[in-house]
């Protein structure tokens, strides 16, 4: 059977200890694999951290490069320096299972079974302290993609961790888009969409496993920064792939914006400043009713965590809506980024509860407004 050779591309910035742990696990996996594996680390750390990372690279026979801050640039540069036909991407705060290369290679070796294969996507498990904040994160949708390979035989897009692509396919579709704002986020999803649109398959393998440290997620600052960045990046992804935006039930954030604008106009006409407070009263009531509906219909054991999970979720939605409106795209008020009908079906029960909560709270606020007037 043909041996598959891998070029591993790792963008780094700080995290010296985690990088050492990753390289150690890659070295072990490399020794456990018959094919050739080269490791390329592209770093933009400060001098002290960069020196430590370079030393780790020397210890584990890895190629070290200094690069720009942009993670997209680092990944593209790493691919340009790669010697082998399969590119394996992994993040610096992860480590790999000993059989990672065998599992990715097992798919590439079945060329007759997957003639339009473009890449292979594995599973990422999280490890480390499962704090109160982490239990909140588990109630968001932010972690779903890490387990896609356990649920779907193929995916249309993937993250930049535990994903491998044919170098030829990667370069054919244009690599990671470096024109996006921010130094990371959304580009891995967008690359996967281009690969899928070009007619290639991204096959999943649940036996290809990496382990992600919870340390780099386990703070409110880190979580909300991710939610803000991902929310804003939704605009730029949808701008390139307009088919993703589909009509959907109205969400509470755009409804709040519309109510606020309407209440300001009425308050100016009637010269009653108290009316401006009604949208805020509506938002509070809507979320209280929604939590009540979720409690009745959902997992009561995780109810408190689900309540707190609305903070990063709202942060995401507000930043998404803000970025669309900033670019003159008001259709975000009645559209939503939807990848498939399965996603819509999965979200439908929750969205119906959310809509009922919005409607009932609107009725209550309407009567409150009549009292004020």
Gross morphology: elongated
Q: Tell me the number of strands.
A: 11
In DSSP terms (H or I, runs of 4 or more residues), the helix count works out at 12
What is the third-level CATH name, the topology of the largest domain? Spore Coat Polysaccharide Biosynthesis Protein SpsA, Chain A
Just name the CATH architecture of the largest domain: Alpha-Beta Complex
Average predicted local confidence, pLDDT = 92
Q: In terms of per-residue confidence, which ranges show pLDDT below 50 for 5 or more consecutive residues?
A: none
Characterization of the model:
The N and C termini lie far apart (80 Å). The protein has helices at residues 16-31, 47-59, 71-81, 100-108, 132-137, 167-172, 187-197, 220-240, 252-270, 278-297, 303-326, 341-372; strands at residues 6-12, 37-43, 63-66, 86-89, 94-96, 117-127, 154-155, 163-166, 201-213, 245-247, 335-337. The strands form two sheets. Strands 1, 2, 3, 4, 5, 6, 7, 8 and 9 form a nine-stranded mixed β-sheet that branches. A two-stranded antiparallel ribbon has the order 10-11. It is built from twelve helices and eleven strands. The protein has two domains: 6-218, Alpha-Beta Complex (Spore Coat Polysaccharide Biosynthesis Protein SpsA, Chain A); 244-372, no CATH class. The protein is elongated, with a radius of gyration of 23 Å. 36% of the residues are buried.
